[in-house]
Structures are given as structure tokens and as C-alpha cells.
Write a structure and sequence with these properties.
The chain is α/β, with parallel strands linked by helices and 257 residues long. It has one domain: NAD(P)-binding Rossmann-like Domain (Rossmann fold). It is 37% helix and 13% strand. The chain is built from 7 helices and 8 strands. The protein has an 8-stranded mixed beta sheet, with helices on both faces. Helix 3 packs parallel to helix 4, helix 4 runs parallel beside helix 5 and helix 4 (100-115) crosses helix 7. It is globular and about 50 Å long.
């Protein structure tokens, strides 16, 4: 039995992954952006150990969430599932003055990775759209570029892939991987998404708990449990390190070696 923390597990793919894990006998801690949503999450997955609350668009809340997680002891796996989508029509600033998409999709996984006690496995949800992300990492805060919601989302998913590969390299004792679940009919994906919803949570569950040789690798990228090519820059160590330095600058949180 493994113990897993899943961000953004009040609904969608996060909740689906949680259900599969508890049904298989694993312990799961859920997460939602506020207390009311956390209560709803626990009602939806009553076998879960508990549900934590924290708004990942807020640096203070994200840091506090990491503290909550650490008080529960070490986890076997953390699934960085929480994300906001590509349809924001303008640059929505968070309480910290950052773009909402960047804060939730990029900075929060970085901060949680840096502050939560190292698990045995890290799993980051990316997207096929990461391949069109901007690897220059210029203007991460979208202060000079005209806003494009899809581009901001694509960039953030490239960042998640970069982070997964950086952690595989920096923390060799931790299995760190990324995946794309497919374009599926969730609240984010929309009702017309063409991919198989039932298959969408399979890879993250597999990477979190399976002892199969194919799942106990590090620095890999998957789609439906099969390796898949990434953006060419995703494995560029210099790009990975630039992202980590940028995230440290935005958050004030340093990533330990």
C-alpha cells in the first residue's frame, strides 16, 4: 500500500485518480482550493484519508499547503495534477501580481516540490500542448507579450515537463516523470474533447504506485503508459535550470540540491 497526495483532486482527473487509488487499497490525501471544496472532495471520495485546502494561485497559501502536507508525514508519491486551462481571455493577476495560469500551473508545483518532504515518486501532469510552449522562458509573467490564453497554458505545461526532468536529474533517489493524459471531456477539456476519459487517469496512477519496470523509471514522459517524445528543449539542462532560477526568483523559495 502506498500513500499519495494529489493536488487539484476535488474533481476531474485528480478525483478520478484518487478513486482508482483508494479502490486499489492505497491511502490518498486530497486537495482543493478552499475548505468548502475540500469538504466536497472528501464526500466524493470518502475512503480518502483527508482533504487539504489551499489556493495554489496564492504563494502564501501554497507555502501553507506544503506545511500542512509535511505535518502528515512523508508520502510515497505526489501527483501534481492541479491546473487551470487555456481559455482565460486576459491576463488575470493573482494576489501576488502574477498571471493566474503561471501561478497555478508552473509556480505552485515548483514551490510544493521544493518545500514538501521528498517522496519516493513525483508525477507531473503535462499536456500535448507543451510541444508548442516557448522554451526561451522570456517574459514568464506576461508583462510584455500580448496575452494569449492557449500560449500561456502551453508554456506552463512545458514548464511542468522541464520541472519533472530537472527533479529526475537533481534528485536521483526520487522517481520523477511527466505525462499527458490526453484531451478529454473534463471541466477543463470541454464536452467535445475527443480522447478516452476512462484512460486519462491511468498513467498517473501507474506512475505513482506500480512496481512494473516500465513505471519505475525516472526522467521519462508518457502518454497512456507508453513513452512519448517531448518538446526538444525539455531535456536541455540549461533551460531546466533557468526555469528553476526564475521560479525561485518569483517565489522566494529555493530548491534544495
Amino acid at each position: 500500500m502506498s500513500r499519495i497526495f494529489i493536488t487539484g483532486s476535488a474533481d476531474g482527473l485528480g478525483q478520478m485518480a484518487a478513486r482508482r487509488l483508494v479502490d486499489a487499497g492505497h491511502q490518498v490525501v486530497l486537495h482543493a482550493r478552499n475548505a468548502a471544496r475540500a469538504d466536497e472532495a472528501l464526500k466524493a471520495v470518502p475512503q480518502a484519508e483527508r482533504a487539504l485546502a489551499g489556493d495554489l494561485s496564492s504563494l502564501a497559501d501554497t507555502i501553507a499547503l506544503a506545511e500542512q502536507v509535511n505535518r502528515l508525514g512523508r508520502f510515497d508519491a505526489i501527483i501534481h495534477n492541479a491546473a487551470v486551462g487555456y481559455q482565460e481571455p486576459r491576463r488575470i493577476a493573482t494576489v501576488d501580481g502574477l498571471p493566474h495560469v503561471f501561478a497555478v500551473n508552473t509556480l505552485a508545483p515548483y514551490v510544493l516540490t521544493a518545500l514538501i518532504e521528498r517522496p519516493r515518486r513525483l508525477v507531473y501532469l503535462s499536456s500535448g500542448l507543451h510541444r508548442s510552449g516557448d522554451a526561451s522562458l522570456d517574459d514568464l509573467a506576461w508583462e510584455r507579450r500580448p496575452w494569449q490564453g492557449t500560449a500561456a497554458y502551453s508554456d506552463s505545461k512545458l514548464h511542468d515537463t522541464l520541472l519533472a526532468f530537472a527533479m529526475a536529474r537533481r534528485w536521483p533517489q526520487v522517481l520523477s516523470n511527466a505525462l499527458e493524459p490526453g484531451w478529454v471531456a473534463t471541466k477543463m477539456g470541454g464536452p467535445d474533447a475527443p480522447d478516452d476519459l476512462a484512460a486519462a487517469p491511468t498513467t498517473q496512477v501507474w506512475l505513482a504506485v506500480s512496481d512494473e519496470p516500465a513505471a519505475t523509471v525516472s526522467g521519462a514522459y508518457f502518454y497512456h503508459m507508453k513513452p512519448r517524445e517531448t518538446h526538444p528543449a525539455a531535456r536541455d539542462v540549461a533551460v531546466q535550470e533557468r526555469l528553476i532560477e526564475a521560479c525561485a526568483g518569483f517565489s522566494g523559495v529555493r530548491l534544495a540540491d
